[in-house]
Amino acid sequence: MKRTASTLQKTSQLTSTTAIHTPQLPRNFEQIRRRAEEFYAARNGMIGMTLNDWLKAEQELIQELEKQITNK
Fold it and tell me: Where in the chain are the domains?
């Protein structure tokens, strides 16, 4: 496939005008990550449950935040 100068120019323009966005991490990402690591360590580093660790840590944080909201 032969590319013409106009095709290369259009591709160049598209690339330069397209904004590249980096995904934003959730606000509480570090809290969840640290708690998930605690679960991992409590299992003596047994692999294969990282998703469960993450979801459990996330659920704990949600429950903690809900308590804070209802106690105000």
Answer: 28-72
